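Could you please consider the sequence and fold following this short note?
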Amino acid sequence: MAELLERITADWLQERRNSRNGEEAEQAAIRRRAAAAIGSIAGGDPTRSSRVSQLVKESLRKRYGR
């Protein structure tokens, strides 16, 4: 009985290790796909990042009237 339980436990642990490796590979693939899209979202205003300070100030003035 002890040998059977030992074998079941070893098989279960090995299955868990294998499923994690598959999960890690899947997560790595997801990260690669996401990284390929970073910075490629079109915002419609190509100068927005260089004018962020001005845009924030304008937004605060509109919101708080200062």
